[in-house]
Amino acid sequence: MNIRENIIIGGGIIGLAIALELKLRNKQVTILSRNFKQAATHAAAGMLAPRAENLTGEMLNLALQSLALYPQWIEKLSHLGGEDVDYNPCGIIAPVYETPDNTSHDGGLWLDKKNLAHYQPDLGEDVVGGWWYPEEGQVDPRRLGTVLLSIAQSLGVEILEGVSAIAFTRSQGKIKDVITPSGTLTADNYILAGGSWSGKLQPLPVRPIKGQMLSLKMPSDKPLERVIFGENTYLVPKKDGRLIVGATVEDIGWVKGTTAQGVNTLLNNAIRLYPPLAQWKLEEIWYGYRPGTPDEMPILGYGDAENLILATGHHRNGILLAPITAKIISNLVEGKTDSFLPSFSYLRFNSPENPPLPPLVKNSNKNQIMNYPTPQQNNGYHAYSHDVSDDGLVIAGRKFKSRLMTGTGKYPTMESMQQSVMASGCEIVTVAVRRVQNNAPGHEGLAEALDWSKIWMLPNTAGCTNAEEAIRVARLGREMAKLLGQEDNNFVKLEVIPDSKYLLPDPIGTLQAAEQLVKEGFAVLPYVNADPLLCKRLEEVGCATVMPLGSPIGSGQGIQNVANIKIIIEQSKVPVVIDAGIGSPSEAAYGMELGADALLINSAIALAENPVIMAQSMGLATQAGRLAYKAGRIPIKNYASASSPLTGVVTK
Ligand SMILES: Cc1cc2nc3c(=O)[nH]c(=O)nc-3n(C[C@H](O)[C@H](O)[C@H](O)COP(=O)(O)OP(=O)(O)OC[C@H]3O[C@@H](n4cnc5c(N)ncnc54)[C@H](O)[C@@H]3O)c2cc1C
Ligand SMILES: CC(=O)[C@@H](O)[C@H](O)COP(=O)(O)O
């Protein structure tokens, strides 16, 4: 059997850019490319416009990095023998019809009407001024696609043109093959870069956002030299004399074709922006589908199989984002993770209220995969999105939707940690202050690895053997949280553990440290043995929770001290968090069914065969257990009682 190294599904700009980069790194690559002319790449205007597009946050950072890569990328293509792709860092003018309140803009310069007219004469009379983005520009996406394809071919990338991927087959958490009309292909890695069609192969929230476009022929003196990015239309002059006018934004599914209304809107908006073009010749009208996602950011990184990488959902900015995507994805194939990946993982679409739902999970037959029913398939009832939003966990006055806390240690890779945290749906992650400070193995760069604007840090005093040390480390932890932007975070998970064999906490040292830390204004979450009296004392000195252990840390023995934990739950006025020893989702659910307010689970997730899926499973189990607790289980009886009523039964 011919096993390929990397199969890329999709031969748009994203698939081609990745293929070329991998090939240049001496990897073997095959592209399945159904039809380049249907690609958004073929329809795009080619603006490289992070600021003009008003991108923000991580999306802006990603786009700026990609923009910065463009000059060297284009030069590389030219060295590899590629023809001119009309790359032009010409700057972008963004005229507006109303003067903004604030005329300072990072990366842009405000020009009033008069100054703007120097840069671009003959703009419409409604224009009151505009922004000048000198670092932005454009490229010709059709030429770029053609050049990427021919270089890739010449370097030996196998391009299967006209071939569609119909489905994947799977085995043991991996993609086994990809099925095509002309047979089955097998590879070590699969990269899904199918643009808007990606959602047809994998249940990803990628949908087509239709854009209609047209081009006009500019007069020979080419009066437009820069991109003009208006409020509701843009004009992109190309070297060959075309002026691209774009674009409608239509969230109407796979509706084909151009329409009179679409063209009318484009032309009206374009003439208002730049009246002279009313006399220019209309050359071509076309449309394409932008690969849209709910937050308009791409999906990058591993999918729900360990050899499936996703590079899709680039929406309005795929031409701009091609170089950075190629870099990030090629690095990932080589086992190097990029700090952008957590923000762009598909798992971000799984919120705590809408629990993480990787589309496919293994069922009891280890080799088979089972689909979760969609809400539609499930008679409209979404079994996994039970509304738990008004059943939040409150610790020290702070509200959390998720009742699962996780840790960061013991994971095989930083990426598996990042993805597991997201898959679990947890909002509180505990971090060993000492290990981060010492850059202990597995903790290098940990502070940067998670998005602390979404995750609440719970610094812990792991490694402290007495009260004094724990107090000192708690203070360092508070500084660490502040440095990472959590100014008001005064939480500490207090661990005082002199015993290295069983990692059992010292009750006296814990109580002493807790008293002091409470006085210093900490919200103390003490890790203790399941001792009801100790828990009561800790509550009395002002601890924010109590955290009785289920069994020794990392032992996976489950909840061994049920009787005491029940008493603690019954008598506590602060939240009870069962911490340590939970080994499986059934044990997690059981802890919650007992009435615990929350769980802290680390080893069982981090050391699982597939930490990400185990994290998801623990998240679901925590919710299931909570719901069951609230629903009220039936009492346990010694004897059977028939399920159907006995009255009316015919007896002989
Ligand atoms: C009107 C319009 C204007 C735009 N303007 C800009 C712009 O100015 N600047 C910018 O940065 N971006 C722009 N974009 C967005 C940009 O075009 C896209 O983000 C980008 O092209 C996405 O690239 P892609 O390779 O992921 O997808 P596409 O370019 O859509 O390519 C996907 C390819 O995969 C193939 N494929 C899909 N499924 C399969 C399968 N199962 N088997 C085999 N092949 C498959 C398809 O046939 C297609 O050829 C614009 C888009 C549109 C529609
Ligand atoms: C990370 C952390 O705080 C652990 O010390 C915690 O007690 C979890 O225990 P498990 O690793 O057994 O889940």
UniProtKB/TrEMBL annotation:
One of its GO terms (molecular function) is thiazole synthase activity. Pathway: Cofactor biosynthesis; thiamine diphosphate biosynthesis. GO terms for biological process: thiamine diphosphate biosynthetic process. It is found in: Cytoplasm. InterPro entries: Aldolase_TIM, FAD-dep_OxRdtase, FAD/NAD-bd_sf, Gly_oxidase_ThiO, Thiazole_synthase_ThiG, ThiG. One of its GO terms (cellular component) is cytoplasm. 1-deoxy-D-xylulose 5-phosphate binds at G554, A580, G581, N602, S603. Signal peptide: none annotated. Residues 395-645 form the Thiazole synthase ThiG domain. It catalyses: glycine + O2 + H2O = glyoxylate + H2O2 + NH4(+); [ThiS sulfur-carrier protein]-C-terminal-Gly-aminoethanethioate + 2-iminoacetate + 1-deoxy-D-xylulose 5-phosphate = [ThiS sulfur-carrier protein]-C-terminal Gly-Gly + 2-[(2R,5Z)-2-carboxy-4-methylthiazol-5(2H)-ylidene]ethyl phosphate + 2 H2O + H(+). Keywords: Cytoplasm, Oxidoreductase, Schiff base, Thiamine biosynthesis, Transferase. The active site is at K493 (schiff-base intermediate with dxp). Residues 7-331 form the FAD dependent oxidoreductase domain. Its EC number is 2.8.1.10. Homotetramer. Forms heterodimers with either ThiH or ThiS. Belongs to the ThiG family. PANTHER family: THIAZOLE SYNTHASE. Catalyzes the rearrangement of 1-deoxy-D-xylulose 5-phosphate (DXP) to produce the thiazole phosphate moiety of thiamine. Sulfur is provided by the thiocarboxylate moiety of the carrier protein ThiS. In vitro, sulfur can be provided by H(2)S. This is Thiazole synthase. It comes from Cyanobacterium stanieri (strain ATCC 29140 / PCC 7202). The lineage of its organism: Bacteria, Bacillati, Cyanobacteriota, Cyanophyceae, Oscillatoriophycideae.
